[in-house]
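Researcher: Please predict.
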Amino acid sequence: MVAAVLMAVSLMAQACGTPDAGTQDVSAQDVTEQTDGAAIPVRMWIAFTDYRLDWAREKAAEFNQLYPDYEVIIDGYPDYETLFDSALLASEQGNPPAIMHFFEAATQEIRDAVNPAGDPLVTSVAGAIAGRRDINGVPVILEDIVSAPRNYYTVDGEFQSMPWNTSSTVLFSNADMLEAAGIEAPPATWADVEAACAQILALPDAPSNCITWPNHSWIVEQAMAQQNELLANEDNGRSGRADQVFLNSPGMTSFMTWWKALNDQNYYVYTGSQRDWDGTRNAFIAKQVAFLLTSSSDTTDITDSGQAAGFDVVASFMPYNQDVGRSGNVIGGATLWLVDGLEQATEDGALMFMNWFNNPENAAEWHKITGYIPITNGAIALLEQEGWYEQNPNSKVASDQLAESQTTPATLGVLAGNFVAIRDVVTSTAEQLLVTPGRSVDEALETANQQANRLLDDYNALQAE
């Protein structure tokens, strides 16, 4: 079965407690005593190598001072694929990390992965906590996690992992261009986007284009959730293992048709590269477009960079299909998985750190420096008490958008094998429609659907061996 997961991962593209539980000054005697006096190492691997890795290591150092019986060691990897391949190898060698960071779309793959003994590579966080309210004095925060990530990572009735960097797709607008064009509010629907673009491109000093977003399947998945359309059978893989995906559904056809129409009207601009988060962001900051649809994880950077470039940035909900209405949005980002088979003391140390790492103070700080949503209600309450949202209204948009989403199989998000490879089919298909004049949306999606279902069939066949 490891071979099955390795095959799937090799196809991947680089992705992108209680409400008042805070940092606890717990003495060493509150932690499991060690007979030899040596700190128990707890290794955590994350798919960041930038300032986010630095922040995580700072937090690990704080934790190690508070709980000297443990030594949390954090290593960074350039992407989720490299991290997962390395973790599988480490597991085969008998030396896996205690905590693994992995992105949401690969949830089925990591749950299917096994160690050399044939046991699951990871285990349920809720199962390991086993109803405890605290782990050696560190409050358990699972019950306080906000609904969207809670629902996404609850599988088979149990919280599987510890959410950390959770995002949504939001629209960033150049407020100065909106004012110049006489547009009172950011567009809320697809039709509003087209109307706004017509006004903005009619300005004497109009930008080259109007709107952009990365050609990434995650954006498409958001549009599907908004239209309450499933991406896979078995309730998006939530009521059973998905064995069919739907890339030629009415919702997919509607979004791809609209996207292509924007491109054909010179409203949308394609950077020419799939999954180009930086290129689309740079086009917005350079005032080449008025609107940027992208991950809320960049809220702080985009807001500050816009101000540095001389314009105000306004964040708002992702525009939706006005002919269907808005059911809601799915999450993005990644989560922390607990590796199975750890010694009890090591497992408890990992659980302690996961919960402490996401306590209200830390979750609020993480939100401020990035734009990822505050992962707990306690963190949101703390930010509100501090007046953070009054001073930084853009930072609240993603949380509000997820909180207002209905809970349906479509908005929970899809669980399907080989889904990261299926994502590549979506982005390749979108690129064809954007760069090939006259390409039929219906024909392109029919071909994509056949390709995606072959990938899923191959994956499921290997899992059955």
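Model: The chain is about 45% helix and 15% strand.
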